[in-house]
Design a protein that fits this description.
heterodimer, A: about 110 residues, mainly beta, Immunoglobulin-like, seven-stranded mixed beta sheet, four-stranded antiparallel beta sheet, 1 helix, 11 strands, about 50% strand, globular, B: about 110 residues
Protein backbone atom coordinates (compact mmCIF):
# COMPACT_ATOMS: atom_id res chain seq x y z
CA UNK A 1 0.00 0.00 0.00
CA UNK A 2 1.14 3.50 -0.85
CA UNK A 3 2.47 5.64 1.97
CA UNK A 4 2.26 8.96 0.18
CA UNK A 5 0.55 11.51 2.40
CA UNK A 6 -1.41 14.43 1.00
CA UNK A 7 -3.02 17.26 2.91
CA UNK A 8 -5.62 18.60 3.02
CA UNK A 9 -7.99 16.03 1.57
CA UNK A 10 -10.49 18.74 0.66
CA UNK A 11 -9.92 22.40 -0.16
CA UNK A 12 -12.52 25.03 -1.01
CA UNK A 13 -11.47 28.41 -2.38
CA UNK A 14 -13.03 31.40 -4.05
CA UNK A 15 -11.92 32.57 -7.46
CA UNK A 16 -8.72 34.55 -7.24
CA UNK A 17 -7.68 33.02 -3.94
CA UNK A 18 -4.50 31.06 -3.37
CA UNK A 19 -4.80 27.32 -2.95
CA UNK A 20 -1.97 25.32 -1.42
CA UNK A 21 -1.65 21.60 -0.98
CA UNK A 22 1.10 19.42 0.41
CA UNK A 23 2.59 16.02 -0.21
CA UNK A 24 4.96 13.83 1.77
CA UNK A 25 6.43 11.21 -0.55
CA UNK A 26 7.20 7.68 0.49
CA UNK A 27 10.38 7.49 2.47
CA UNK A 28 13.38 7.10 0.21
CA UNK A 29 11.59 8.05 -3.00
CA UNK A 30 13.55 10.83 -4.70
CA UNK A 31 11.06 11.56 -7.49
CA UNK A 32 7.74 13.33 -6.94
CA UNK A 33 5.01 13.94 -9.48
CA UNK A 34 1.92 16.15 -9.43
CA UNK A 35 -1.08 15.32 -11.59
CA UNK A 36 -4.46 16.92 -12.01
CA UNK A 37 -7.43 14.58 -12.46
CA UNK A 38 -10.53 16.38 -13.75
CA UNK A 39 -14.18 15.49 -13.35
CA UNK A 40 -13.96 13.28 -16.44
CA UNK A 41 -11.18 11.33 -14.71
CA UNK A 42 -8.58 12.53 -17.21
CA UNK A 43 -5.04 12.87 -15.89
CA UNK A 44 -2.91 15.90 -16.66
CA UNK A 45 0.74 15.93 -15.70
CA UNK A 46 1.72 19.17 -13.98
CA UNK A 47 5.28 18.96 -12.71
CA UNK A 48 7.81 16.57 -11.29
CA UNK A 49 10.90 16.78 -9.16
CA UNK A 50 13.94 14.69 -8.51
CA UNK A 51 15.11 15.55 -5.03
CA UNK A 52 14.65 19.31 -5.01
CA UNK A 53 15.10 19.94 -8.72
CA UNK A 54 12.33 20.36 -11.28
CA UNK A 55 12.57 17.73 -14.01
CA UNK A 56 9.71 18.83 -16.21
CA UNK A 57 6.64 21.03 -16.02
CA UNK A 58 3.89 22.13 -18.35
CA UNK A 59 3.22 25.72 -19.38
CA UNK A 60 0.22 26.10 -17.11
CA UNK A 61 2.32 25.15 -14.14
CA UNK A 62 4.95 27.70 -15.04
CA UNK A 63 2.47 30.57 -15.20
CA UNK A 64 -0.09 30.14 -12.45
CA UNK A 65 1.17 27.32 -10.32
CA UNK A 66 4.18 27.19 -8.10
CA UNK A 67 5.63 24.01 -6.68
CA UNK A 68 8.59 23.01 -4.63
CA UNK A 69 10.08 20.00 -2.89
CA UNK A 70 12.48 21.34 -0.24
CA UNK A 71 14.70 18.91 1.57
CA UNK A 72 13.30 17.70 4.89
CA UNK A 73 9.94 19.38 4.28
CA UNK A 74 6.75 18.38 2.48
CA UNK A 75 6.47 19.07 -1.21
CA UNK A 76 3.86 21.65 -2.09
CA UNK A 77 1.77 22.78 -5.01
CA UNK A 78 0.19 26.23 -4.91
CA UNK A 79 -2.19 27.87 -7.32
CA UNK A 80 -1.58 31.59 -7.15
CA UNK A 81 -5.01 32.73 -8.28
CA UNK A 82 -7.59 29.97 -8.42
CA UNK A 83 -9.98 29.69 -11.33
CA UNK A 84 -13.16 27.63 -11.64
CA UNK A 85 -11.42 25.37 -14.12
CA UNK A 86 -8.86 24.42 -11.48
CA UNK A 87 -11.49 22.42 -9.60
CA UNK A 88 -10.13 18.89 -9.70
CA UNK A 89 -8.41 16.15 -7.75
CA UNK A 90 -4.72 16.89 -7.36
CA UNK A 91 -2.68 13.75 -7.05
CA UNK A 92 0.85 13.45 -5.79
CA UNK A 93 2.88 10.39 -6.65
CA UNK A 94 6.36 9.35 -5.65
CA UNK A 95 8.78 6.93 -7.17
CA UNK A 96 12.16 5.39 -6.60
CA UNK A 97 12.97 5.09 -10.29
CA UNK A 98 10.42 7.37 -12.07
CA UNK A 99 8.71 4.33 -13.53
CA UNK A 100 6.63 2.80 -10.76
CA UNK A 101 4.65 5.63 -9.27
CA UNK A 102 2.76 5.39 -6.00
CA UNK A 103 -0.06 7.78 -5.41
CA UNK A 104 -1.42 9.59 -2.42
CA UNK A 105 -5.17 9.96 -1.80
CA UNK A 106 -5.25 13.38 -3.44
CA UNK A 107 -6.49 16.83 -2.54
CA UNK A 108 -9.90 17.62 -3.96
CA UNK A 109 -10.00 21.32 -4.80
CA UNK A 110 -13.28 23.11 -5.36
CA UNK A 111 -13.13 26.68 -6.64
CA UNK A 112 -16.42 28.50 -6.14
CA UNK B 1 2.80 12.69 -30.08
CA UNK B 2 2.89 9.78 -27.70
CA UNK B 3 -0.49 8.43 -26.64
CA UNK B 4 -2.31 5.62 -24.90
CA UNK B 5 -5.74 4.52 -26.11
CA UNK B 6 -8.38 2.70 -24.15
CA UNK B 7 -11.30 2.00 -26.44
CA UNK B 8 -13.95 1.18 -23.86
CA UNK B 9 -15.27 3.88 -21.59
CA UNK B 10 -17.58 1.55 -19.71
CA UNK B 11 -17.66 -2.21 -19.37
CA UNK B 12 -20.52 -3.86 -17.51
CA UNK B 13 -20.32 -7.54 -16.58
CA UNK B 14 -21.89 -10.12 -14.35
CA UNK B 15 -19.81 -11.60 -11.54
CA UNK B 16 -17.84 -14.66 -12.57
CA UNK B 17 -17.44 -13.75 -16.23
CA UNK B 18 -14.10 -13.04 -17.91
CA UNK B 19 -13.06 -9.52 -18.87
CA UNK B 20 -10.59 -7.91 -21.22
CA UNK B 21 -9.90 -4.18 -21.17
CA UNK B 22 -8.11 -2.89 -24.22
CA UNK B 23 -4.98 -0.77 -24.22
CA UNK B 24 -2.90 0.24 -27.20
CA UNK B 25 -0.08 2.72 -27.28
CA UNK B 26 1.89 4.90 -29.61
CA UNK B 27 5.30 5.95 -28.39
CA UNK B 28 8.49 7.27 -29.87
CA UNK B 29 10.73 5.05 -27.81
CA UNK B 30 10.35 1.65 -26.23
CA UNK B 31 7.83 2.04 -23.42
CA UNK B 32 6.99 0.47 -20.15
CA UNK B 33 3.25 -0.10 -19.74
CA UNK B 34 1.25 -0.04 -16.54
CA UNK B 35 -2.27 -0.71 -15.39
CA UNK B 36 -3.59 1.32 -12.47
CA UNK B 37 -6.87 0.72 -10.68
CA UNK B 38 -8.79 3.49 -8.95
CA UNK B 39 -11.69 2.69 -6.68
CA UNK B 40 -14.24 5.38 -5.91
CA UNK B 41 -12.71 8.23 -3.89
CA UNK B 42 -9.39 6.45 -3.61
CA UNK B 43 -5.92 6.96 -5.06
CA UNK B 44 -4.87 5.10 -8.21
CA UNK B 45 -2.99 1.95 -7.29
CA UNK B 46 -0.46 0.18 -9.42
CA UNK B 47 -1.96 -3.12 -10.57
CA UNK B 48 0.44 -4.44 -13.19
CA UNK B 49 3.56 -3.44 -15.04
CA UNK B 50 4.84 -4.80 -18.30
CA UNK B 51 7.75 -7.15 -18.61
CA UNK B 52 9.59 -8.13 -21.76
CA UNK B 53 7.89 -8.51 -25.12
CA UNK B 54 5.33 -11.33 -25.22
CA UNK B 55 5.79 -12.14 -21.54
CA UNK B 56 2.71 -12.28 -19.33
CA UNK B 57 2.64 -10.48 -15.98
CA UNK B 58 0.09 -11.26 -13.28
CA UNK B 59 -1.13 -9.74 -10.04
CA UNK B 60 -4.23 -10.29 -7.93
CA UNK B 61 -5.83 -12.45 -10.61
CA UNK B 62 -5.32 -9.87 -13.35
CA UNK B 63 -2.87 -10.46 -16.16
CA UNK B 64 -1.56 -8.69 -19.24
CA UNK B 65 0.97 -9.37 -21.97
CA UNK B 66 2.98 -6.70 -23.74
CA UNK B 67 2.84 -7.24 -27.49
CA UNK B 68 5.16 -4.84 -29.24
CA UNK B 69 4.07 -6.14 -32.66
CA UNK B 70 0.57 -4.80 -32.05
CA UNK B 71 1.50 -2.07 -29.53
CA UNK B 72 -0.91 -3.54 -27.01
CA UNK B 73 -1.09 -4.33 -23.30
CA UNK B 74 -4.64 -5.56 -22.71
CA UNK B 75 -5.78 -6.30 -19.15
CA UNK B 76 -7.59 -9.58 -18.51
CA UNK B 77 -9.14 -11.51 -15.70
CA UNK B 78 -10.77 -14.91 -15.98
CA UNK B 79 -13.52 -14.35 -13.41
CA UNK B 80 -14.47 -10.87 -12.20
CA UNK B 81 -15.66 -10.16 -8.68
CA UNK B 82 -17.91 -7.44 -7.31
CA UNK B 83 -14.87 -5.82 -5.70
CA UNK B 84 -13.28 -5.38 -9.14
CA UNK B 85 -15.71 -2.56 -9.93
CA UNK B 86 -13.44 0.46 -10.41
CA UNK B 87 -11.74 2.69 -12.94
CA UNK B 88 -8.85 1.09 -14.79
CA UNK B 89 -6.17 3.20 -16.39
CA UNK B 90 -3.50 2.12 -18.80
CA UNK B 91 -0.37 4.26 -18.79
CA UNK B 92 2.95 4.25 -20.53
CA UNK B 93 6.30 5.42 -19.35
CA UNK B 94 8.40 6.48 -22.27
CA UNK B 95 12.03 5.64 -21.65
CA UNK B 96 13.08 8.36 -24.05
CA UNK B 97 11.08 10.99 -22.14
CA UNK B 98 11.77 9.61 -18.74
CA UNK B 99 9.83 11.98 -16.62
CA UNK B 100 6.11 11.29 -16.72
CA UNK B 101 3.37 8.76 -17.33
CA UNK B 102 1.13 9.12 -20.36
CA UNK B 103 -2.37 8.08 -19.39
CA UNK B 104 -5.28 6.57 -21.23
CA UNK B 105 -8.73 7.97 -20.56
CA UNK B 106 -9.69 5.06 -18.35
CA UNK B 107 -12.26 2.29 -18.47
CA UNK B 108 -14.96 2.04 -15.86
CA UNK B 109 -15.63 -1.59 -14.96
CA UNK B 110 -18.96 -2.32 -13.31
CA UNK B 111 -19.52 -5.84 -12.03
CA UNK B 112 -23.10 -6.80 -11.24
CA UNK B 113 -24.24 -9.64 -8.97
Amino acid sequence: NSKVIQTPRYLVKGQGQKAKMRCIPEKGHPVVFWYQQNKNNEFKFLINFQNQEVLQQIDMTEKRFSAECPSNSPCSLEIQSSEAGDSALYLCASSWDRWEQYFGPGTRLTVL
Amino acid sequence: GDSVTQTEGLVTLTKGLPVMLNCTYQTTYSPFLFWYVQHLNEAPKLLLKSSTDNKRTEHQGFYATLHKSSSSFHLQKSSVQLSDSALYFCASFNVGDNSKLIWGLGTSLVVNP
